[in-house]
UniProtKB/TrEMBL annotation:
<dbReference type="GO" id="GO:0016791">
    <property type="term" value="F:phosphatase activity"/>
</dbReference>
<feature type="domain" description="Serine/threonine specific protein phosphatases">
    <location>
        <begin position="70"/>
        <end position="75"/>
    </location>
</feature>
<dbReference type="GO" id="GO:0005737">
    <property type="term" value="C:cytoplasm"/>
</dbReference>
<dbReference type="InterPro" id="IPR006186">
    <property type="entry name" value="Ser/Thr-sp_prot-phosphatase"/>
</dbReference>
<dbReference type="InterPro" id="IPR029052">
    <property type="entry name" value="Metallo-depent_PP-like"/>
</dbReference>
<dbReference type="InterPro" id="IPR004843">
    <property type="entry name" value="Calcineurin-like_PHP"/>
</dbReference>
<dbReference type="InterPro" id="IPR050126">
    <property type="entry name" value="Ap4A_hydrolase"/>
</dbReference>
<protein>
    <submittedName>
        <fullName>Serine/threonine protein phosphatase 1</fullName>
    </submittedName>
</protein>
<dbReference type="Pfam" id="PF00149">
    <property type="entry name" value="Metallophos"/>
</dbReference>
Length: 218
């Protein structure tokens, strides 16, 4: 449910917002900030696929030793459709899943199995303390309570689906973690609510851009 990473002694650690199948745009953003695959690491808040033209590249990126992602609600769509058959196909299609629904069943299963290995949360050690990465929001007010919350479906659904923090401008702080980085809700600029930082600035939208947050200088 949670994957832990130690400090990066060699380089920088970046977190990127929702990618949604725009990997070439992401590559351009990485080049612009001088990303060095041999020493830097890139963490993703999930939603690697749907909506964009390069969704099938997701597995290639997940195979890179410097790229690490949590699962988002769009990975959840793919997992449920390919491994359980329990998904509203019309809803999935309306949310960009047409590319996936058009794949052969075996290829769908390949994606589903890969996405099902993704954790719901990543935590990274930094000089300032632990930084968490989730897709949508933290289901608890104390990071130490996250494992127990993720053991239940309500906690997992909050983690990948909730927009309540942005809807209500919730400034509450998640204890025992320096910062929590999330995506899911597209915004014009990075917004911090409490110590939860929202970084989906719509790199997958025509008028948006990818935010690459260097968590070493938060």
């Amino acid at each position: 449910m949670i994957r832990h990473f130690g400090k990066n002694a060699a380089g920088r650690d970046f977190v990127v917002g929702d990618i949604h199948g725009y990997f070439s745009r992401l590559q351009e953003a990485l080049a612009a900030c001088g990303f060095a695959p041999g020493k830097d690491r890139l963490f993703s808040v999930g939603d690697l696929v749907d909506r964009g033209p390069e969704c099938e590249l997701a597995l290639d990126w997940l195979a890179q030793p410097w790229f690490h992602a949590v699962r988002g609600n769009h990975e959840d769509y793919a997992i449920r459709h390919s491994l359980t058959g329990r998904v509203d196909v019309d809803n999935y299609m309306a949310n960009g899943g047409g590319w996936f629904l058009g794949l052969p069943a075996q290829r769908q299963k390949e994606f589903g199995l890969a996405f099902d290995k993704l954790p719901y949360a990543i935590e990274v050690e930094t000089a300032k303390g632990l930084v968490g990465v989730l897709h949508a929001d933290c289901p608890v007010r104390d990071w130490k309570d996250l494992p127990a919350a993720l053991a239940g479906k309500p906690g997992r659904m909050t983690t990948i689906w909730s927009r309540e923090r942005t809807q209500y401008s919730d400034q509450s702080v998640v204890q025992n973690v320096y910062a929590v980085i999330v995506g899911h809700t597209p915004l014009r600029e990075v917004v911090a609510l409490g110590n939860v930082v929202h970084i989906d600035t719509g790199g997958w939208l025509e008028q948006g851009h990818f935010t690459l947050l260097d968590i070493g200088v938060l």
